[in-house]
Amino acid sequence: MLGERSADWWRSAVFYQIYPRSFADGNGDGIGDLPGITARLDYLNDLQIDAVWLSPFFPSPQVDFGYDISDYTAVDPVYGTLADFDRLLDAAHRRGVRVILDLVLNHSSTKHPWFLEAQGDRRSSRRSWYVWADPAPGGGPPNNWLSSFPAVGSAWTLDERSGQYFLTTFTPAQADLDWHNPDVRQAMHDVMRFWLSRGVDGFRLDVPHRLAKDPMLRDNPPSLAAARRFMDHATDRQRHIDLPEVHEILRGIRAVADEFEDRVLLGEVTITEPRRLARYFGESDDELQMVFDVLFWDSPWSAPAFREAIAALDRVVPPWSLPCRAMSTHDHRRAASRYGLLAGDGRRARLAAMMQMTLRSVPCVYYGEEIGMTDVPVAAERIRDVDQRDANRTPMQWGPGTLGAFDPTKSWLPMPDEPDRVSVLRQTADASSLLAFYRRLLAYRRQSRPLRDGSFEWLSPASDLLAYCRAAETSRVVVLLNFAPHEARTILPPGAAVAVADLSTDPRRRAGTAVAAGDPLFAEEGLILRLA
Ligand code: NOJ
Ligand code: CA
Questions:
Q1: 434 lies in the same domain as 325
Q2: Which domain holds residue 139?
Q3: Is there a single domain that holds both residue 208 and residue 320?
């Protein structure tokens, strides 16, 4: 059962992202579905996951694989029924696992009845639910706005019938809604209430920073090369003008979530300038409780780079919020591939996991990360995604013949040639596997007050070593992450001479042994120490 009701449950939670199409196949048709997820809740529970984020499973033409929604309050038949969803939610809650849904508010599918009505008749009351504009004086799109997908080009799509353009920030099959229209807000608030009253625990908001549009449709300024570090996310190829109205819109959304108890909003705000990003937490606790740390997921594999990314956002996070730190998502190459985490004996994968689970933030594990799934090469003729994100969305590798496993001859995206090389089945039986390490790490985190909700303090700026101390009441732990391919020296907070090793990424280190300041750390070892 869900634990004590607590408005702050999310602060100490470990999230897990499920891409429903690829997580577990309940009926063997090669596409993941809701009954498949329900059948695998025990796996998540054993892993000690506290909450899952489900990518969209609503009716959709699947041009952007569910991020183009044609009905916000139903389930696409390929994934199951509303009754299947209710069963999933109930089964999750019975295990104490919370569920948040993906709320795609910026745009609907052009097949949504709202858009069909708007497009069919210029005088229809739905027309103003979307963003329309006449062509530029010399013809062509109204301004220089670009789609977030490089393959698409202009963010404007011509409606031949009316001669006007409509805004499509992603694909031409996703029409941007006009959130300046109160009727749009009302309709979307009702969508939220529909799911919240069924019991969902909150939402992950798709591109919430894009909800407000410049009413004057001014050209976007070019991004300055000098400001590259602080440019909008790579998929946002232009700098966007920040509109204060977006915060009023988000306060409205938060107020709806707050009509219900203990719900949470997590925003995918792809702005890499920390101060601009932090505005989405609100001026008091009235916007998003969490945003993804986009600096973290864009960081290269190096201790100084991670330190800088982590510190940059931590510095601006207000007390009522937390960043959510993911290593991979359905939009990013898998961390195991990007960082080469499986090289050698896979110690880097354990180091990455230890970092993610011990920072002062909410971790989100992308399905399959816990077994070290890598990007799977997809031949050109099998690429399905407009932005070529197929390789990091391939089916979960459960292992042949197990619950919810995909049949590689039918799966909607290819699976690796040796499906059982990296699989849950194999790793469950192996105490030295990455999965076994994740289990130990998450079990440790769950019982550790300092890791769940303690303070965070850097111990030293030493270059290849990330070292920090986390404290809650009288308990303190020190986390040492040695990124160097050679030994490093243990550092402890001033006044502490000896600590006890609780958990290491290196099998040579025995739990319970004493470690003193100056003692060696193994190459690429991650170590959690308890201070007496
Ligand atoms: C962000 C989502 O994560 C991505 O998958 C999608 O393509 C765009 N938003 C458009 O909804
Ligand atoms: Ca299926």
A1: yes
A2: 113-176
A3: yes
Rounded to an integer, what distance in angstroms lies between the CA atom of residue 365 and that of residue 388? Answer: 21
Residues with Cβ < 8 Å from 67, sequence gap 6 or more?
Answer: 56, 60, 102, 104, 170, 174, 206
- Residue 340 to residue 349: CA distance in whole angstroms: 8
Ligand nearest to the CA of 35: 2
Which atom in ligand 1 lies closest to the alpha carbon of residue 67? 11
Within-domain flag for 512: yes
Distance, CA of 443 to CA of 420 (rounded, Å):
26
Nearest to 270 by CA among 242, 294, 248: 294
Is the pTM value of this prediction over 0.90? yes
Q: Are residues 188 and 288 in the same domain?
A: yes
What is the CATH classification number for the domain harbouring 483? 2.60.40.1180
pLDDT tens, residue order, the chain (532 aa)? 666 568 799 999 999 999 999 999 999 999 999 999 999 999 999 999 999 999 999 999 999 999 999 999 999 999 999 999 999 999 999 999 999 999 999 999 999 999 999 998 999 999 999 999 999 999 999 999 999 998 899 999 999 999 999 999 999 999 999 999 999 999 999 999 999 999 999 999 999 999 999 999 999 877 654 344 444 444 456 777 779 999 999 999 999 999 999 999 999 999 989 999 999 999 999 999 999 999 999 999 999 999 999 999 999 999 999 999 999 999 999 999 999 999 999 999 999 999 999 999 999 999 999 999 999 999 999 999 999 999 999 999 999 999 999 999 999 999 998 766 799 999 999 999 999 999 999 999 999 999 999 999 999 877 899 999 999 999 999 999 999 999 999 999 999 989 999 999 999 999 999 999 999 999 999 999 999 7
Closest CA to 62 of 188, 174, 175: 174
Let me know whether 139 and 88 are in one domain.
no
Is 259 labeled as catalytic in the residue annotation?
yes
Token pair in block for residue 198: 């069924």
Distance between CA atoms of residues 351 and 438, nearest Å: 11
**C-alpha pair distances (Å), 393 with each of 19, 49, 188, 253:** 8, 20, 28, 29
68 and 86 housed in the same domain: yes
Which of 55, 58, 64, 390 for a ligand 1 pocket mutation test, highest count of atoms within 8 Å of Cβ? 64
Q: What is the tally of structural domains in the chain?
A: 3
* Residues 455, 464 contacting (CB under 8 angstroms): no
Distance 430 CA to ligand 1 centre (A): 36
- Report the separation in Å between the CA atom of 67 and the middle of ligand 1, taken as the mean of its atom positions: 6
Domain with 433 in it: what CATH number? 3.20.20.80
Q: At what angle do helices 182-198 and 245-257 cross, to 10 degrees?
A: 30
Q: Which of 392, 422, 446 corresponds to the end of one domain?
A: 446
Q: Do 402 and 496 fall into the same domain? A: no
Based on the domain organization, do 169 and 192 belong to the same domain?
A: no
The residue to mutate among 104, 109, 205, 390, having the most atoms of ligand 1 within 8 angstroms of its beta carbon, is: 104
Check if the beta carbon of residue 38 is closer than 8 Å to that of residue 383: no
Separation of alpha carbons 302 and 307, rounded Å? 9
